[in-house]
Specification:
Elements (H helix, E strand, L loop, with lengths): L1 H17 L5 H12 L5 E2 L17 E2 L1 H10 L5 H12 L21 H11 L1 E2 L14 E7 L2 E11 L6 E5 L6 E3 L6 E7 L3
Parallel strand pairs: 1-2
Antiparallel strand pairs: 3-8, 4-5, 4-8, 5-6, 6-7
């Protein structure tokens, strides 16, 4: 009986590989790439948005909105996830903005909050200077200097030299695909799948 079960299990695994079943992180990468086809103006303004599943206007956004929108395409609402965690663990999150309680309009749109959330509920990955350590679906955070942080998603497209995966992010020019993995100091590296 055990041998029969093992054979069925091995067949199922082989079948899934053979038909090219896509992993969650490959789907996340694809979701981020789709975002690059949408025209978005960089806009760090504060917006009052619906909760849950709220979003700033579709033609507006910042770096965090790239991550939020890519996850939302896979049915994961980071606005809700971050808010639920902040409601019960508010003191664990940065107190940089003078808030005394969570705010569903903005909390998930702040890189330091996403870093805490991904550290608490995702997988913290190695920060290195080796391209092979950064895979499609990985979330990367950078320090741009002067207290400014940034976030993007590694995707399944390679640099011209084939050495590293590219990143979808919004650093001011809209939701774009760029070879920017090592342009700034990396301060966070995560995977998150609910």
């Amino acid at each position: 009986m055990k041998t029969k079960f093992l054979n069925i299990f091995l067949f199922a695994c082989t079948y899934n590989v053979a038909i090219g079943q896509t992993t969650f992180y490959e789907k996340l990468s694809d979701s981020a790439l789709v975002l690059t086809k949408q025209k978005v103006v960089y806009d760090p303004g504060y917006f009052t948005i619906d909760y849950p599943n709220g979003d700033v206007p579709a033609n507006r956004g910042v770096c965090t909105d790239v991550v939020i929108r890519a996850y939302r395409k896979l049915g994961i609402d980071l606005q809700k996830e971050v808010h639920e965690d902040m409601k019960t663990n508010f003191k664990m999150y940065p107190q940089n903005w003078g808030l005394t309680r969570p705010n569903t309009n903005i909390d998930h749109r702040r890189v330091p909050n996403l870093m805490v959330f991904f550290s608490r509920h995702g997988k913290v990955k190695l920060i290195s200077t080796r391209p092979k350590d950064y895979l499609p679906g990985d979330i990367v955070c950078w320090n741009l200097g002067g207290g400014i942080t940034h976030i993007g998603l590694v995707v399944n497209k390679k640099s011209i030299d084939g050495e590293r995966y590219l990143v979808v992010h919004n650093i001011g020019g809209g939701q774009v695909l760029a070879d920017c993995l090592f342009d700034h100091k990396i301060i966070g590296h995560y995977q998150y799948e609910k």
